[in-house]
Amino acid sequence: MKYCPHCAAPLSTSAIDGIERLACGAGCGYVFWNNPVPVVAALVQYRGGVLLARNAAWPSGKFSLITGFLERGESPEEGILREVHEELGLSGSIARFIGYYPFHPQNQLILAFDVLAEGEVSLSPELLEYRVIAPEKLKAWDFGTGFAVRDWLAIRAA
């Protein structure tokens, strides 16, 4: 951002609460806080396994949980069930909340849910392919939604 969305004056860097932030140089009071964006994620349990999908923009062999942005006016639970339906064509129900995970590279806060899904998969244009992995063969990765997989595996083993 270069200009204030309230008065169109140039933004400048100011120390606010001990942190350098962009703020309105004309003094209208606007501060660009750059708060994290909420993202919902689903560990989709489907036909005895965990469904992972590959985004159309990702390289071959890279799969992850189903994710999407939380929309205005919806709860995280509503948001993730909407995403599962939009991206996979499946109906789902929430088994449990897995946890929340900061994803600093994208300035996001991931809210992850364990979702039980049914129906026939119909991929959205955002996704190229999917795999259903047996839970005992599922391995967590060390960033983003991989931490939710790690925690889900721990819950399952307990």
UniProtKB/TrEMBL annotation:
Needed co-factor(s): Mg(2+)
GO biological process per UniProt: NAD+ catabolic process; NADP+ catabolic process
Pfam family name, one: NUDIX
GO molecular function, one term: NADH pyrophosphatase activity
Superkingdom of the organism of origin: Bacteria
Record's protein name: NUDIX domain-containing protein
Organism this protein belongs to: Noviherbaspirillum pedocola
InterPro entries linked: NAD-cap_RNA_hydrolase_NudC, NUDIX_hydrolase-like_dom_sf, NUDIX_hydrolase_CS, NUDIX_hydrolase_dom
Gene Ontology CC entries for this record: cytosol
Alphabetized UniProt keyword annotations: Hydrolase, Magnesium, Metal-binding
Boundaries of every Nudix hydrolase domain copy: 34-155
